[in-house]
Amino acid sequence: PLDEYGVPTPMPAADRQAAVSRADQQISALISKLPPDTTILVAGISDVTPNAHLHVAIATGPSPTGEPYPHGHLTATSTRQDGLVTITDLTATAIQLLGLPATRDVVGRTWQPGGPAPATPADTVTELADGDLASQVLREVRGPFFTVLVTLQLLFYALSALALRRRRAGRTIETGHPEALAAAGTPRTAPQDVATPLPTADHPADADLPATGHAPASVPPATPSTPTDTGTEAAKRPDTPPDTRTDAAEDSGTAPDVSTATTTAATAATPPATELASTSKLLRAIQAVAVVSGAIAVSTFLAQLVPWWTLPVPMLSVIVTILAIAGLITAVAFAGPWRAHVLGPLTVVAAITSVALLIDVMTGSRLQVNAVTGYEPVTGGRFYGFSNIAFAVYATGTILGLAGVAQWLLSKGVARSVVVAVCGLYGGFAIFADGWPSWGADFGGVPAFVIGLAVFLILLSGKRVSVLRLLIVGLIGAALIGAISVFDWLRPESERTHLGAFVQQLMDGQAWTVIGRKLSAMIGVTIGNWSLTLLSLVALAFLFLVLARPSRWGASALGQAYDLAPPLRAGLFGALTCAFVGFLMNDSGIAIPAMALTVAVPLTLAACVRALQLATPTRPEPRSEPAAPTRAEA
């Protein structure tokens, strides 16, 4: 019955139990009159509550393949998930069992035997009911979760911007190289002028990292009687930047002896109250929170390893579970010697993101089912492969992870051509996994991924990105996804994915209808989901208006990170390009760049903070005195 608002009222438990008993008796009476080799399909197709639920599906007797349905779960190629089929699959199964010709209007796939089920019916019911509970809880928490995520991200960007941009009178610190200090006559023995963080319990090896890697090399302090690292000697050091070596060499004849410099000059250059970036607790906190924030996206999928939906307060449970997993990933990011490198934590988080989602999609996409950023079975939009959000997280993690690997290989002296080849090999496999019908089955993601990876590899090789090169790469991406789609179309119709279905729609003249529907959905999501649109705009503004401009520690944080780890620039631009093209080619619209930026910007911030910590403070330029009046003015 309907209530006063016209909404169906929930069926009382006693009435529902009585109705189930009557249906059971009717089915039992029918089965007793059927021949033994009859195939019986039972499916619940209506709800007894205002909210939609998953329902029972049972099959017994000969399957469409001729073999009887064994004890176990049902599945279908429409879902590729054990224990999950669709209502449209019921139609396709009945048609094939009856030997009737299947038309293209039938969009379902036949029910097939799946994986093993619990031994008893009671345990099977409990397991299936748990799947329905997860779907119900997901629909309740998904909206509030994204609200919390967007709010916390915006607050974090605002607080980080204040911390990085805040200025204090008389406390501006510029950055430079230790050799420039020596050439200017500033002794590096002064504690307040130390560029490289001193070894501590937390960072015992920080001072021993190579300058060509992620941190300046440790340099023995010059003694008062030995004017080292000045003039020509500084110019000969391999760890001295080219511009600094030239300046030091040019000044070698006029630079004052280090032995004559006093600590008074160093104290005047850097006031005792000044907080160095390498010792700032605020920067350490920002870096840690940034790494946690960058790990949130992949943690939303890994959270499916824990049955959070069965806990008393689902919303709190899913947040705590995701934060706990993100905390574990962050602990790994800071656990080893890589924590001292500019791209160390970024590489760890990005690599875990890429590998975890790659393994998941190769093994059935189980982590994406009922994840807050994945699939929701009752809605039934998609059940396998890469969703648009998962693709955004996966592609961003892959490109940024390759940037970190490239920096590590280059610091070890590996030839740049070899580094580009290694990154290209893994990137190519990642793209293949994204588009292959048996794994990712992602149509719109492949061209975006190809273009984004190409931008990264071109910049990594030292070449410039041109319109012609992007056009060629775009054509390659279109040809690649086209070839995969045709391969999928050549398979039997019952085994095709939406890639092969799109080829058939092209042949039937329905492709423009599909493209128009996706374009309309993309625009609708972008305009309607204002929170993700706001998050994307704020993240981009933070990246280019905060990190790219001088901070309270003087230097541009992003510029410092680029100087110490040049592949970061290639990786960041490649990831942003991939997100932008994915935004244009998929119906999820703004959700793709929003999730990509949720990974890229916090991890870039963490790298920038580490770059500031490794920067060397130098004396600010003296204020110019008023010019003396000339005779004419007098």
How is the topology of this model organized?
Blueprint lengths: L12 H19 L8 E4 L13 E4 L13 E2 L11 H11 L14 E2 L7 H45 L8 E3 L1 H6 L47 H6 L5 H9 L12 H7 L11 H22 L11 H20 L10 H19 L25 H24 L4 H20 L9 H16 L6 H24 L7 H11 L2 H18 L1 H18 L9 H8 L2 H19 L5 H24 L1 E3 L16
Antiparallel strand pairs: 1-2, 3-4, 5-6
Molecular structure report:
This protein is mostly helical. The protein has two domains: 13-117, no CATH class; 135-164 and 279-613, no CATH class. Helices cover 55% and strands 3% of the residues. It has helices at residues 13-31, 87-97, 121-165, 178-183, 231-236, 242-250, 263-269, 281-302, 314-333, 344-362, 388-411, 416-435, 445-460, 467-490, 498-508, 511-528, 530-547, 557-564, 567-585, 591-614, and strands at residues 40-43, 57-60, 74-75, 112-113, 174-176, 616-618. Helix 3 (121-165) runs parallel beside helix 17 (530-547), helix 13 runs antiparallel to helix 19 (567-585) and helix 17 (530-547) runs parallel beside helix 20.
Outline of the structure:
The chain is mainly alpha-helical.
Essential attributes:
2 domains; 634 residues; two-stranded antiparallel ribbon; two-stranded antiparallel sheet; mainly alpha; 20 helices
**Number of alpha- plus pi-helical segments:** 20
Low-pLDDT ranges: 168-273
Distance between the termini: 101 Å
Largest sheet: 2 strands, antiparallel
**How much helix, percentage-wise, in residues?**
40-55%
Principal-axes shape call: globular
Average pLDDT across residues?
80
Q: Strand portion, in percent?
A: under 5%
SSE ordering: HEEEHEHEHHHHHHHHHHHHHHHHHE
**Strand neighbour order, sheet with most strands:** 1-2
Report the structural category: mainly alpha
Count of distinct structural domains: 2
Q: How many beta strands in the DSSP annotation?
A: 6
Radius of gyration from the alpha-carbon trace, in angstroms: 31 Å
